[in-house]
């Protein structure tokens, strides 16, 4: 990864919709060269996609929570991950070190929907031994950008 590609990636992480001509102006490189570099990074999987970030509160989903899900020893964690992954309220699913457990991030309309989700998960997924829920009171930082220093 050369310095020019890193410059391009820093710009795209901050403003993915920036026109190619603007990127080329910012890094003093021909627009065709910038476009070629971006395409190569897409082909090589360095850039995995572009997405729109919506304001969840404007759509009625203000409540963020993290839920630790403990599994029984005989439980197939890959199967549980598949079942968790299809739920729209679940934004992230992580199998974490330590005890056999997942950490999931959810976004719901409120405590009632969160309660319904917890009840449904424990009733429908065999192998969940217990859950522990952390409701987010405020968020100081939330980003999808990675450091490119």
Topology:
Elements: H1 3-14, H2 20-27, H3 31-43, E1 63-71, H4 77-85, E2 90-96, E3 101-108, H5 111-124, E4 128-135
Helix pairs in contact: 2-3
For the biggest sheet, the summary is: 4 strands, antiparallel
CA distance, first residue to last residue: 12 Å
- CATH-derived topology of the largest domain: Alpha-Beta Plaits
Helix proportion range: 25-40%
> Beta fraction of the residues?
15-25%
CATH top-level class of the largest domain: Alpha Beta
Query: N-to-C SSE series?
Result: HHHEHEEHE
Return Rg in Å.
20 Å
So what's the oligomer here? single chain
Q: How many distinct folded domains?
A: 2
- Supply the helix-strand structural class: alpha+beta
Explain what you see:
The chain has 149 residues and is of the alpha+beta class. The chain has 2 domains: 3-43, Orthogonal Bundle (Arc Repressor Mutant, subunit A); 56-135, Alpha-Beta Plaits, CATH 3.30.70.920. It is 38% helix and 21% strand. It is elongated and about 60 Å long. The mean pLDDT is 95.
């Amino acid at each position: 990864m050369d310095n020019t590609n890193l410059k391009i990636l820093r710009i795209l992480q901050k403003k993915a919709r920036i026109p190619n001509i603007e990127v080329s102006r910012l890094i003093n490189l021909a627009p065709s060269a910038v476009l070629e570099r971006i395409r190569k990074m897409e082909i090589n999987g360095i850039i995995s996609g572009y997405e729109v970030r919506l304001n969840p509160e404007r759509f009625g989903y203000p409540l963020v929570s993290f839920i630790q899900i403990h599994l029984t020893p005989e439980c197939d964690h890959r199967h549980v991950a598949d079942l968790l992954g299809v739920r729209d309220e679940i934004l992230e699913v992580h199998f974490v070190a330590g005890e056999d457990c997942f950490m999931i991030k959810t976004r719901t309309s409120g405590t009632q929907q969160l309660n319904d989700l917890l009840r449904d998960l424990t009733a429908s997924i065999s192998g969940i031994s217990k859950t522990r829920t952390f409701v987010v009171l405020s968020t100081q930082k939330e980003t999808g950008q990675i450091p490119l220093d």
